[in-house]
Design brief:
Elements: H1 5-10, H2 24-32, H3 37-48, H4 55-78, H5 94-105, H6 109-128, H7 135-152, H8 156-176
Amino acid sequence: MASYYYLVATLPLLRFEAQRPFDAAYFLKQCKSLVSDHDYQTITSALSGRPSSHPFLMKWQLFASMVKKELNDQRSKKLGLSALKYQNNGGKKISIGEAVRQALSNENALDAELSLLALKWKYLDEIVGLHYSDVEALLVYALKLQLLERKSLFTKEEGHAEFKRLFSNLQSEIANT
């Protein structure tokens, strides 16, 4: 098992409440020359969402899949859809179901999305355990960067512009009918 003490020590601390210090592409560029080819491919797989045989990454992907399935299940029930393709008949965790239920009960869509990102962040904190300087630490860092990238997309200015665009399109459709 390779140790990446120097690389991990040079990385800025990531906090969910803070802005990302750089994007995942920059992080990958930093890793390229400092980690083994195998570990680099594992990190790349983590960021792309491709299935992996790495035990740590498999654990993360299972969790992310359970969150997604639970979201589909609860959203479909909320919309009155009962098709089997929406139901979460796979692995379930009560904590995921409850967290998703709380997020979906939030009237503010942004707050709901942020709570789901926070759920994933918390899970990464839980599974990283004592991995301080190995590939697992780098995987968590990469995945947290990805979560912060998603979070950075939620700006008031862009949201307001998108709302105006959608509202304008809707007005145009109504006027044309």
